[in-house]
Structures are given as structure tokens and as C-alpha cells.
């Protein structure tokens, strides 16, 4: 299972969901789905988010152990 800190980091940076969506060229609904954990991004989108948030990809996305 992949978890993420998109919402936390986005809010620290002062971006709205619309801002981030525009920066990575996806819909606001995609950002909502990512933040809720109901959608896992493609590798390309994960890198775009990392660049947009100026954060290491490993600080945004984490692999959780399945038990």
C-alpha cells in the first residue's frame, strides 16, 4: 500500500488543490483522489508532484507494509 503526504506538504507550501493540479497538469479531482489515497499516481505524475512541491519523492510517497 502506498501512502502520501501530498496534502500536508501542499498546505505547508501554501498551495490550493487547484494550484497543484495546474502545476502538474491534472484535474483538481485527481489531486483530491491522491490526497484521499484512493488513487496511486503514475511514476511520471509522482515526479511532477515532487518537483512542484520542491520535495524529495521519498518524503512525499511511502510504501507501507501490508499485514
From TrEMBL:
GO molecular function ontology, one term from the record: DNA binding
Start and end residues of each HTH cro/C1-type domain: 6-60
The UniProt record lists the keyword Electron transport: no
SMART domains cross-referenced by the UniProt entry: HTH_XRE
CDD domains cross-referenced by the UniProt entry: HTH_XRE (cd00093)
UniProt superkingdom: Bacteria
Record key words, sorted: DNA-binding
PANTHER family: DNA-BIDING PHAGE PROTEIN (PTHR46558:SF4), TRACRIPTIONAL REGULATORY PROTEIN-RELATED-RELATED (PTHR46558)
Protein name listed in UniProt: HTH cro/C1-type domain-containing protein
Species this protein is from: Erysipelothrix larvae
